[in-house]
Automatic annotation (TrEMBL):
Name listed for the protein in its UniProt record: Pyrroloquinoline quinone biosynthesis peptide chaperone PqqD
Species for this entry: Azospira restricta
GO BP of this protein: pyrroloquinoline quinone biosynthetic process
Keyword Chloroplast attributed: no
Molecular function terms, GO-annotated: quinone binding
Any Pfam family matching the protein: PqqD
C-alpha cells in the first residue's frame, strides 16, 4: 500500500480512546479491545481523515523533536498495518 497521500481515519466499527485502567490508548470493537503502545496511540490520535500520513509523520517529528526519517518510516509502517487490520480506512 502506498501510504504517502493516504488520509486515514478510524473505521466507524472501532472506537479509539485513552483507557485509564490500561494506562494506554486502546481500540474498542464488539469482540474486545486492542491495547496500543504509546507510538501507535500518538499516530492514531492524528488520523482524522484530513491529514496525510506524511503530514502526520511531520507533526509527530516536530512534536517529539525526533528524526523525521525515522518517524516517517514508523508512521507509514503502522498506518499500513492498521489499514490491513481494518482499523483505518481512507477518508470519505
Amino acid at each position: 500500500m502506498d501510504t504517502a497521500n493516504f488520509r486515514p481515519q478510524l473505521d466507524p466499527r472501532f472506537m479509539f480512546r485513552w483507557e485509564p485502567s490500561q494506562e494506554a490508548f486502546i481500540i474498542l470493537y464488539p469482540e474486545g479491545l486492542i491495547k496500543l503502545n504509546p507510538s501507535a496511540g500518538e499516530i492514531l490520535k492524528r488520523c482524522d481523515g484530513v491529514r496525510s500520513v506524511d503530514e502526520i509523520a511531520a507533526d509527530l517529528a516536530a512534536t517529539f523533536a525526533a528524526d523525521p526519517a525515522d518517524v516517517a518510516a514508523g508512521t507509514h509502517s503502522f498506518v499500513a498495518l492498521a489499514h490491513e487490520k481494518g482499523w483505518l480506512r481512507p477518508a470519505a
